[in-house]
Amino acid sequence: MKIYTKTGDAGDTGLFGGGRVPKDDPRVEAYGDVDELNAVLGMARAVEQLPRIDEVLVPVQRDLFAIGALLATPDREKMAQHLEKARIDEHRITELEKAIDDAESELEPLRAFVLPGGTPKSAALHVARTVCRRAERRVVRLQHAVELPSLVVTYLNRLSDLLFTLARLANKRAGAGEVTW
Asked: Which residue numbers in the chain have pLDDT < 50?
């Protein structure tokens, strides 16, 4: 199978489970931003190896593949299957919260806004956080038009908090201070 199919040359794309939509359809925008987030997380993992942080990110990347598949699927039954395969449920949200709590236990409490930056790892995680927020906004917009499991927005919201906390932790572990606003 070739990587190029030429089926999207007219500006439309195929969805999981059938059907075609314009490439600027809100559904495509939403799963495209989730895909971009996944790629940025891959870059963040590649920038500097920080095992305990990277170990948290690998399952997140798997979750994001499943969320992207769910968003690319107009069929509600298949959506449920993608969620189940990814095991994105309340327990998974709790795992993200535990990872946030674990990271925060090593950090000083926030007293001011933190400027993104510091180490390359931290900067990459801040970029991932902003892409995550954009993906969340796109999913919320899509949710106005089609029914989606509410856990998707909850997951992305919690993930952006995790990425912020991990960015702070990456700076702390590298001995880099934070620049506040």
From this structure: none
Token reading at 18:
């059938």
- pLDDT at 179 (0 to 100): 82
- Give residue-wise pLDDT tens across range 42-57: 999 999 889 889 999 9
pLDDT of residue 86: 66
What fold, for 23-104+112-173?
Answer: Hypothetical Protein Ta1238; Chain: A; (1.20.1200)
Residues 6+ apart with CB under 8 A from 50: 121, 170, 173
Cβ burial of 9 (10 Å; 0-12, 13-18, 19+) is exposed
The single-letter DSSP state of residue 12 is E
| Cα 46 off chain centre by | 16
Q: Which is it for strands 12-14 and 20-22: parallel, antiparallel or unpaired?
A: antiparallel
